[in-house]
Amino acid sequence: MPLRVVQWTTGIVGRSAVRTVLAHPDLDLVGCFSWSADKAGTDVGELCGIDPVGVVATDSVEEILGLRPDVVLYMPLHWQVDEMVRLLEAGINVVSTANFITGRSYGDEAMRRLDDAAKRGGVSLYGTGINPGYANALGLMATAVCRRVDRVSVLESVDCTAYASPQTWLETGFAVPPDTPGLVELAKNRQLVFVDAVEMMAEALRVELDEIVYTPEFGVATEDLDLGYMKIAKGHVCGLKGLWSGRAGGRSVIELGLVWRLGHAMEPDWPTEEGYVIEVDGEPSVRSRFTVRYDTLGVDFGMPTANPAVNAIPHVVAAAPGLVTVDELSMITAAGLVTTGG
Questions:
Q1: Global pTM?
Q2: pLDDT tens profile 202-228
Q3: Which alpha helices (DSSP H) does the chain contain, by range?
């Protein structure tokens, strides 16, 4: 019997998740939560730019609980721990892409509440995405060929111009002067989920970290940029290069790097890999490059973030109650989605 799925919000990632759930033979979309009242009562297909699917969105948490789904795909731009706790306590598994891997970045108390709620409800809570999430899993898998590991590095290096979420970029510190007071903290706070990811990788590799250090650099526009969904003035931030470094024994052992840029004119003019570069220094050393073919996405730019969450659903439902991380699950694949025939 297909697992009953509720989609929580229909932003860029949520819309992609809906399409993948509908395509999956083992999943059944039974509901959708809308954060805004004006979307309530609208067919989910209409909200996602596809044909009607016969499922109507609601802004009532009580209605979502009443559906008794197996899992909620929790994908709001701004998460609410109280919402997540209610879902978990009601016996609903939660798979989140809302800046969640372990919940550490939400605060220790929030992380304990979520883990306890999942255990009381007899369900699991799992966080993923493309990065953090899937890219970190690839980094962990790359270490399997090593006899000795000195450092693991996962770099996301992309031109993000096509990701039309102005609120995301504004909250990360884009489109303001580089000397704006508090800019470093603004960028850091919106990326705190990388603390989760560094700690998750360290625990999976049985490394006890001494500290996690964040180092940012900002790129500025060399001309006025009009991205269609937002404008960035000349001299304002249009790029971010950040490094989250987990340190032990006086050196960096786990590094999660970011190079994000918007628009075509930036100083420094950082080149991008247009994907993910995974490096393991050790015996032997490993270097691999993972690229999403964006020319195959059409307008569906949320797919790389949404699909690892959707494809994890059967594994999460089968997992032990409580918070689970990718190293505790069986291998996640696109099982059931392979096309055959002509």
A1: 0.92
A2: 999 999 999 999 999 999 999 999 999
A3: 12-23, 44-47, 61-66, 81-89, 108-121, 134-142, 166-171, 183-190, 193-204, 303-318
